[in-house]
Amino acid sequence: MRAVKLAALVDGHWTKDRTEHRRGAVFTGGAACADDVSSRAWVLIDDGSARRFGPALAWAWRQRVRALDVLVEGPSASQVVARRAAQMAEPPAVWLISDRSLRPALAAQAQWPDPVDASTLPYVEVLREHGAEPVVEHGVLRGEVLGLEVARVIDGRLEVGVGRHDRYARAEMRRGQAFGAALDETVAAVRLRRRPGAGIHAANTLARSRWLRSILCARPDLVGAESLTAVAPPLPAPDLTDNGAVPCVGIDTAEEPVVVVCSTGVDLDVVPTAADSRAIYGRDARLVIVVPEGDDHPVTRSLAASLLRPAEVRTVPRNWEGLASASGL
Fold first, then answer.
1. Higher per-residue confidence, 170 vs 221
2. Predicted model pTM
Protein backbone atom coordinates (compact mmCIF):
# COMPACT_ATOMS: atom_id res chain seq x y z
CA MET A 1 0.00 0.00 0.00
CA ARG A 2 2.85 2.40 0.76
CA ALA A 3 4.34 1.85 -2.69
CA VAL A 4 0.96 2.63 -4.24
CA LYS A 5 0.60 5.74 -2.09
CA LEU A 6 4.05 6.97 -3.08
CA ALA A 7 3.41 6.32 -6.77
CA ALA A 8 0.20 8.33 -6.58
CA LEU A 9 1.97 11.26 -4.94
CA VAL A 10 4.85 11.19 -7.42
CA ASP A 11 2.51 10.97 -10.40
CA GLY A 12 0.39 13.75 -8.98
CA HIS A 13 3.28 16.20 -8.54
CA TRP A 14 6.04 15.14 -10.93
CA THR A 15 6.24 13.86 -14.47
CA LYS A 16 4.48 10.67 -15.55
CA ASP A 17 6.54 10.34 -18.69
CA ARG A 18 9.04 7.76 -17.46
CA THR A 19 7.04 5.54 -15.11
CA GLU A 20 8.35 2.48 -16.96
CA HIS A 21 11.88 3.35 -15.86
CA ARG A 22 11.08 3.48 -12.16
CA ARG A 23 12.22 0.90 -9.61
CA GLY A 24 10.90 0.84 -6.11
CA ALA A 25 11.50 -0.48 -2.63
CA VAL A 26 9.53 -0.83 0.59
CA PHE A 27 11.09 -0.49 4.03
CA THR A 28 9.90 -0.15 7.60
CA GLY A 29 7.85 3.00 7.88
CA GLY A 30 7.87 3.92 4.21
CA ALA A 31 8.61 3.25 0.57
CA ALA A 32 10.90 4.56 -2.15
CA CYS A 33 11.20 4.74 -5.91
CA ALA A 34 13.91 5.91 -8.27
CA ASP A 35 13.94 7.07 -11.89
CA ASP A 36 16.74 5.28 -13.75
CA VAL A 37 16.90 7.94 -16.47
CA SER A 38 17.18 11.08 -14.35
CA SER A 39 18.77 9.51 -11.22
CA ARG A 40 16.06 11.23 -9.24
CA ALA A 41 14.32 9.46 -6.35
CA TRP A 42 11.45 9.89 -3.93
CA VAL A 43 11.07 8.46 -0.44
CA LEU A 44 7.85 8.28 1.55
CA ILE A 45 7.96 8.34 5.37
CA ASP A 46 4.44 7.89 6.68
CA ASP A 47 4.76 6.32 10.13
CA GLY A 48 5.53 9.59 11.95
CA SER A 49 9.14 8.67 12.72
CA ALA A 50 11.90 11.10 11.76
CA ARG A 51 14.33 8.23 12.38
CA ARG A 52 13.45 6.87 8.93
CA PHE A 53 15.43 9.69 7.32
CA GLY A 54 18.74 7.88 7.82
CA PRO A 55 17.57 4.69 6.09
CA ALA A 56 16.17 6.89 3.30
CA LEU A 57 19.59 8.48 2.79
CA ALA A 58 21.26 5.06 2.91
CA TRP A 59 18.90 3.73 0.24
CA ALA A 60 19.55 6.78 -1.95
CA TRP A 61 23.30 6.30 -1.48
CA ARG A 62 23.10 2.67 -2.61
CA GLN A 63 21.02 3.69 -5.64
CA ARG A 64 23.48 6.48 -6.53
CA VAL A 65 20.68 9.02 -6.51
CA ARG A 66 21.57 12.55 -7.56
CA ALA A 67 18.38 14.33 -6.47
CA LEU A 68 16.23 13.13 -3.58
CA ASP A 69 12.77 14.25 -2.49
CA VAL A 70 11.55 13.07 0.92
CA LEU A 71 7.79 13.07 1.49
CA VAL A 72 6.83 13.00 5.16
CA GLU A 73 3.46 12.50 6.82
CA GLY A 74 2.93 14.51 10.01
CA PRO A 75 4.07 18.08 10.78
CA SER A 76 6.30 17.12 13.71
CA ALA A 77 8.24 14.42 11.86
CA SER A 78 8.54 16.56 8.73
CA GLN A 79 10.01 19.45 10.72
CA VAL A 80 12.68 17.24 12.30
CA VAL A 81 13.51 15.64 8.94
CA ALA A 82 13.81 19.09 7.37
CA ARG A 83 16.18 20.19 10.13
CA ARG A 84 18.30 17.11 9.62
CA ALA A 85 18.27 17.46 5.84
CA ALA A 86 19.60 21.01 6.19
CA GLN A 87 22.78 19.56 7.73
CA MET A 88 23.70 17.87 4.42
CA ALA A 89 26.03 19.53 1.92
CA GLU A 90 23.50 18.69 -0.81
CA PRO A 91 20.25 18.62 1.15
CA PRO A 92 17.31 16.64 -0.21
CA ALA A 93 14.00 18.43 -0.59
CA VAL A 94 11.61 17.64 2.26
CA TRP A 95 7.86 17.84 1.74
CA LEU A 96 4.96 17.71 4.18
CA ILE A 97 2.08 15.55 2.95
CA SER A 98 -1.41 16.92 3.46
CA ASP A 99 -3.94 14.57 1.91
CA ARG A 100 -2.79 14.50 -1.73
CA SER A 101 -1.05 17.86 -1.66
CA LEU A 102 2.57 18.64 -0.80
CA ARG A 103 4.21 21.71 0.62
CA PRO A 104 7.82 22.40 1.66
CA ALA A 105 8.43 21.24 5.22
CA LEU A 106 9.55 23.88 7.70
CA ALA A 107 12.62 22.93 9.73
CA ALA A 108 12.12 22.66 13.49
CA GLN A 109 14.33 24.90 15.56
CA ALA A 110 17.25 23.16 17.28
CA GLN A 111 16.86 23.51 21.03
CA TRP A 112 17.98 21.78 24.20
CA PRO A 113 15.61 19.06 25.44
CA ASP A 114 13.37 19.85 28.42
CA PRO A 115 15.22 20.08 31.76
CA VAL A 116 14.34 17.91 34.71
CA ASP A 117 11.88 19.20 37.29
CA ALA A 118 13.73 20.69 40.27
CA SER A 119 11.73 18.53 42.68
CA THR A 120 13.53 15.41 41.40
CA LEU A 121 17.05 16.76 41.98
CA PRO A 122 17.42 15.28 45.51
CA TYR A 123 17.36 11.85 43.86
CA VAL A 124 20.55 12.64 41.94
CA GLU A 125 22.73 11.99 44.99
CA VAL A 126 20.60 9.01 45.99
CA LEU A 127 21.31 7.37 42.66
CA ARG A 128 25.03 8.05 42.93
CA GLU A 129 25.19 6.71 46.48
CA HIS A 130 23.78 3.40 45.28
CA GLY A 131 26.06 3.04 42.27
CA ALA A 132 23.83 4.38 39.49
CA GLU A 133 24.75 7.24 37.17
CA PRO A 134 22.12 10.04 37.04
CA VAL A 135 21.13 10.90 33.48
CA VAL A 136 18.55 13.52 32.49
CA GLU A 137 16.74 13.03 29.19
CA HIS A 138 13.75 15.02 27.96
CA GLY A 139 12.64 16.03 31.43
CA VAL A 140 13.12 12.59 33.01
CA LEU A 141 15.73 11.71 35.62
CA ARG A 142 17.04 8.17 35.14
CA GLY A 143 19.63 6.06 36.89
CA GLU A 144 21.90 4.01 34.63
CA VAL A 145 24.52 1.32 35.17
CA LEU A 146 26.90 1.06 32.23
CA GLY A 147 24.23 2.74 30.13
CA LEU A 148 21.35 0.47 31.17
CA GLU A 149 18.43 2.09 32.97
CA VAL A 150 17.88 0.70 36.48
CA ALA A 151 15.62 3.42 37.91
CA ARG A 152 13.73 6.56 37.01
CA VAL A 153 11.78 9.25 38.80
CA ILE A 154 8.07 9.15 37.94
CA ASP A 155 5.58 11.59 39.47
CA GLY A 156 8.09 12.56 42.12
CA ARG A 157 8.85 8.95 43.16
CA LEU A 158 11.98 6.91 42.49
CA GLU A 159 10.95 3.62 40.86
CA VAL A 160 13.51 0.84 40.53
CA GLY A 161 13.76 -1.67 37.69
CA VAL A 162 15.27 -2.32 34.28
CA GLY A 163 12.59 -0.72 32.17
CA ARG A 164 8.87 -0.22 32.62
CA HIS A 165 7.89 -3.89 32.97
CA ASP A 166 10.55 -4.64 35.57
CA ARG A 167 9.55 -1.55 37.56
CA TYR A 168 5.93 -2.68 37.54
CA ALA A 169 6.82 -6.26 38.53
CA ARG A 170 8.94 -5.07 41.44
CA ALA A 171 6.21 -2.76 42.66
CA GLU A 172 3.70 -5.62 42.59
CA MET A 173 5.84 -8.44 43.93
CA ARG A 174 8.00 -6.60 46.44
CA ARG A 175 5.66 -4.18 48.07
CA GLY A 176 7.27 -2.32 50.94
CA GLN A 177 10.86 -2.97 49.86
CA ALA A 178 12.98 0.10 50.54
CA PHE A 179 14.07 1.69 47.28
CA GLY A 180 17.68 1.79 48.53
CA ALA A 181 17.77 -2.00 48.96
CA ALA A 182 15.97 -2.48 45.63
CA LEU A 183 18.43 -0.19 43.87
CA ASP A 184 21.46 -1.95 45.38
CA GLU A 185 20.09 -5.31 44.27
CA THR A 186 19.34 -4.15 40.73
CA VAL A 187 22.68 -2.38 40.30
CA ALA A 188 24.55 -5.50 41.45
CA ALA A 189 22.55 -7.75 39.11
CA VAL A 190 23.23 -5.52 36.11
CA ARG A 191 26.94 -5.26 36.85
CA LEU A 192 27.14 -9.04 37.09
CA ARG A 193 25.64 -9.44 33.62
CA ARG A 194 26.99 -6.37 31.84
CA ARG A 195 30.57 -7.55 31.44
CA PRO A 196 32.67 -9.56 28.95
CA GLY A 197 32.18 -13.31 29.21
CA ALA A 198 28.72 -13.15 30.77
CA GLY A 199 26.10 -15.31 29.08
CA ILE A 200 23.63 -13.66 26.73
CA HIS A 201 21.05 -11.85 28.79
CA ALA A 202 18.79 -8.82 28.42
CA ALA A 203 21.13 -6.98 30.78
CA ASN A 204 23.96 -7.14 28.23
CA THR A 205 22.05 -6.98 24.96
CA LEU A 206 19.95 -3.86 25.61
CA ALA A 207 21.08 -0.23 25.22
CA ARG A 208 24.54 -1.13 23.95
CA SER A 209 25.12 2.30 22.41
CA ARG A 210 24.58 3.76 25.88
CA TRP A 211 26.99 1.20 27.32
CA LEU A 212 29.65 2.42 24.88
CA ARG A 213 28.86 6.03 25.81
CA SER A 214 29.32 5.32 29.51
CA ILE A 215 32.80 3.95 28.77
CA LEU A 216 33.78 6.95 26.66
CA CYS A 217 32.57 9.37 29.34
CA ALA A 218 34.90 7.57 31.77
CA ARG A 219 37.71 7.31 29.19
CA PRO A 220 37.39 10.36 26.89
CA ASP A 221 41.01 9.88 25.85
CA LEU A 222 39.87 6.93 23.72
CA VAL A 223 38.42 9.44 21.25
CA GLY A 224 40.85 12.30 21.73
CA ALA A 225 38.79 14.24 24.28
CA GLU A 226 39.67 15.70 27.67
CA SER A 227 36.17 15.32 29.13
CA LEU A 228 32.76 14.07 28.03
CA THR A 229 29.31 14.26 29.61
CA ALA A 230 26.23 12.32 28.51
CA VAL A 231 23.37 14.40 27.12
CA ALA A 232 19.92 13.55 25.77
CA PRO A 233 19.59 12.37 22.16
CA PRO A 234 17.60 14.72 19.92
CA LEU A 235 14.56 12.41 20.00
CA PRO A 236 13.29 10.52 23.06
CA ALA A 237 13.97 6.77 23.04
CA PRO A 238 10.64 4.99 22.51
CA ASP A 239 11.50 2.15 24.91
CA LEU A 240 14.31 0.20 26.53
CA THR A 241 14.91 -1.90 23.42
CA ASP A 242 15.88 1.20 21.42
CA ASN A 243 19.57 1.06 20.52
CA GLY A 244 19.72 4.35 18.71
CA ALA A 245 22.80 6.55 18.70
CA VAL A 246 23.38 8.66 21.82
CA PRO A 247 25.46 11.82 22.24
CA CYS A 248 27.87 13.22 24.77
CA VAL A 249 29.55 16.61 24.77
CA GLY A 250 32.84 17.94 26.05
CA ILE A 251 36.22 19.40 25.25
CA ASP A 252 38.86 17.81 23.04
CA THR A 253 42.62 17.79 23.60
CA ALA A 254 42.91 21.09 21.73
CA GLU A 255 40.45 22.59 24.25
CA GLU A 256 37.81 22.93 21.54
CA PRO A 257 34.18 21.85 21.93
CA VAL A 258 33.36 18.37 20.65
CA VAL A 259 30.14 16.42 20.21
CA VAL A 260 30.68 12.66 20.31
CA VAL A 261 27.88 10.34 19.18
CA CYS A 262 28.06 6.65 20.09
CA SER A 263 26.48 3.81 18.16
CA THR A 264 26.76 0.02 18.00
CA GLY A 265 25.70 -2.18 15.12
CA VAL A 266 25.09 -0.65 11.71
CA ASP A 267 22.64 2.12 12.60
CA LEU A 268 21.51 3.75 9.36
CA ASP A 269 20.25 6.80 11.25
CA VAL A 270 23.46 7.50 13.14
CA VAL A 271 24.66 10.29 10.83
CA PRO A 272 21.41 12.34 10.85
CA THR A 273 21.20 11.84 14.62
CA ALA A 274 24.80 12.97 15.02
CA ALA A 275 24.29 16.06 12.85
CA ASP A 276 21.13 16.87 14.79
CA SER A 277 23.02 16.50 18.08
CA ARG A 278 25.62 19.00 16.92
CA ALA A 279 22.90 21.42 15.84
CA ILE A 280 21.46 21.26 19.35
CA TYR A 281 24.53 21.12 21.57
CA GLY A 282 27.30 22.86 19.67
CA ARG A 283 26.83 24.17 16.17
CA ASP A 284 30.53 25.07 15.94
CA ALA A 285 31.80 21.90 17.63
CA ARG A 286 33.81 19.13 16.06
CA LEU A 287 31.58 16.10 15.45
CA VAL A 288 32.86 12.58 16.06
CA ILE A 289 30.88 9.39 15.47
CA VAL A 290 32.21 6.43 17.44
CA VAL A 291 31.39 2.81 16.58
CA PRO A 292 33.05 -0.57 17.26
CA GLU A 293 35.41 -1.95 14.64
CA GLY A 294 33.39 -3.58 11.90
CA ASP A 295 30.38 -1.33 12.43
CA ASP A 296 31.92 1.52 10.44
CA HIS A 297 29.99 0.57 7.31
CA PRO A 298 30.90 2.42 4.09
CA VAL A 299 27.45 4.06 4.07
CA THR A 300 28.16 5.53 7.51
CA ARG A 301 31.50 6.94 6.42
CA SER A 302 30.07 8.25 3.15
CA LEU A 303 27.11 9.99 4.81
CA ALA A 304 29.38 11.41 7.51
CA ALA A 305 31.57 12.92 4.79
CA SER A 306 28.50 14.32 2.98
CA LEU A 307 27.46 16.60 5.85
CA LEU A 308 27.76 20.34 5.36
CA ARG A 309 30.44 20.13 8.06
CA PRO A 310 31.72 16.56 7.75
CA ALA A 311 31.88 14.31 10.81
CA GLU A 312 34.82 12.15 11.76
CA VAL A 313 34.16 8.41 12.19
CA ARG A 314 36.31 6.67 14.78
CA THR A 315 36.31 3.09 16.00
CA VAL A 316 36.91 1.33 19.29
CA PRO A 317 38.08 -2.31 19.50
CA ARG A 318 35.57 -5.08 18.80
CA ASN A 319 35.86 -6.18 22.43
CA TRP A 320 35.10 -2.66 23.69
CA GLU A 321 32.97 -3.99 26.57
CA GLY A 322 36.20 -4.96 28.35
CA LEU A 323 37.21 -1.32 28.46
CA ALA A 324 34.68 -0.78 31.27
CA SER A 325 36.78 -2.57 33.88
CA ALA A 326 39.90 -0.79 32.63
CA SER A 327 38.03 2.47 33.09
CA GLY A 328 37.11 1.73 36.68
CA LEU A 329 33.40 1.41 35.93
1. 221
2. 0.93
